[in-house]
Amino acid sequence: MAHQFGQNRQLDAQWLALTERVSTAGARWLDSLFSAFPSPTALLESAGSRDGQDVVAALRRELELSAPITLPSALRRGAPLWLVTTQHAEYPPLLAECEDRPPFLFVRGRLESLLEQSLSVVGTRKPSLGGRRATADLVTAAVVGDRSIVSGLALGIDGIAHDVAVRSGGTSIAVLPCGIDRTYPQRHAALAEQLTRRGAIVSEFPLGTPPRKHHFHRRNRTLSGFSVATLVVEAGRPSGTLLTASAAADQGRDVLTLPWSIYHSGAAGCRYLLSDGAVLIQSAEDLLSHLGVTRDTVTAEPPPDEPLFTQQAEGPSLASSATEPDQQALLTLLGAETHTVEACAIALGWQMERCLSGLVALEVAGKVARASHGYCALP
């Protein structure tokens, strides 16, 4: 069974002292140490002549001198904190197959969520309206298909994927580039708390570790290692998202992505992935088929929500009532895509009347045009 912090203060301190050696001992060495000594107690009780390694002897002395620790107050109040090594049954099974697997994981939340079948989802920090909608549709389909969602808690696609998974009644796991006693980015602190109840927060970095640039590459490889496939929703080129896709390919996992328009520069990375052999995903059905989810195992989708606003009055009064910040927000949202008034209102969290007034004002100003399926920005 994985170690739960807060049960034995002396053992807590020994585990933390052991895991903090990863920065100097190296992940592979620590992994082999866990294989030989599955707990600090086993290491302490081993005969000195048995291992013959000075570093192990020094580590044993360090563990004997470790003082009891005090867990951060936020962790004492919240979800349980676990330490899972490669020797524990709770270690994610697909991640265990990776040559570069982290030797241990700090886990806050539901330990059993690490064993669920999952889909890794990543993308840009500045998604378009189409990217937001695609994330919501595809993540909802994956959750209905009984798949957990793994992502990095970053702004943009990552955060949307976590949020939609939880709102859809599913499980989601966030992999952090820092210690799990920290939240990165801080803007997602509330979302992180939700995940500890409906999934888990995971990190390979010891408590107290701040996010550093070189941590993101390691985090991305752990994130992709959780799942049989990584879905790239929207990505620029170059981008950190492409590094995650590359890690997935290196691990022998499938990379899935969407066929974005050539006029959508913010998704050039997706088109590059397709040219490099990524699996084309054009619908929720494509995704479910690739994940091996048959239609008869998927429950019916809930009925659509009631419209936010039932009457769409148009005219000069709407154009004159739109503020300049509203108009700018709509232009940013539209990008190079065509979207309905309803979709814009949902994405911005506005009432339909406010959204429509802004679009009419932009149309009068010659900045957007009305198409058969909504509005699009003019070049």
Shape: elongated
Record field, number of beta strands: 13
User: What is the residue-averaged pLDDT?
Assistant: 85
Radius of gyration: 24 Å
CATH class of the largest domain: Alpha Beta
Question: How do the strands line up in the largest sheet?
Answer: 1-2-3-7-6-5-4-8-9-10
CATH architecture of the largest domain: 3-Layer(aba) Sandwich
> Residue share in helices?
40-55%
* Cα separation of the termini: 60 Å
Low-confidence stretches: 299-319
By secondary-structure content and strand pairing, the structural class works out as alpha/beta
* Number of helices in the DSSP assignment: 19
* Fraction in beta strands: 5-15%
Key phrases:
379 residues, alpha/beta, Rossmann fold, Arc Repressor Mutant, subunit A, ten-stranded mixed beta sheet, 13% strand
Topology:
Layout: E1 3-4, H1 9-19, H2 22-25, H3 27-36, H4 40-45, H5 48-51, H6 54-65, H7 73-77, E2 81-85, H8 93-96, E3 104-109, E4 118-122, H9 129-144, E5 148-151, H10 157-167, E6 172-175, H11 189-198, E7 199-203, H12 213-225, E8 229-232, H13 240-250, E9 254-257, H14 268-275, E10 279-280, H15 284-290, H16 316-321, H17 324-334, E11 338-339, H18 341-348, H19 352-364, E12 368-371, E13 374-377
Parallel strand pairs: 4-5, 4-8, 5-6, 6-7, 8-9, 9-10
Antiparallel strand pairs: 1-2, 2-3, 3-7, 11-13, 12-13
What does this structure look like?
The chain is built from 19 helices and 13 strands. The chain is α/β, with parallel strands linked by helices. The chain has three domains: 3-107, no CATH class; 118-297, Rossmann fold (3-Layer(aba) Sandwich), CATH 3.40.50; 316-377, Arc Repressor Mutant, subunit A (Orthogonal Bundle), CATH 1.10.10.10. The relative contact order is 0.10. The protein has helices spanning 9-19, 22-25, 27-36, 40-45, 48-51, 54-65, 73-77, 93-96, 129-144, 157-167, 189-198, 213-225, 240-250, 268-275, 284-290, 316-321, 324-334, 341-348, 352-364, and strands spanning 3-4, 81-85, 104-109, 118-122, 148-151, 172-175, 199-203, 229-232, 254-257, 279-280, 338-339, 368-371, 374-377.
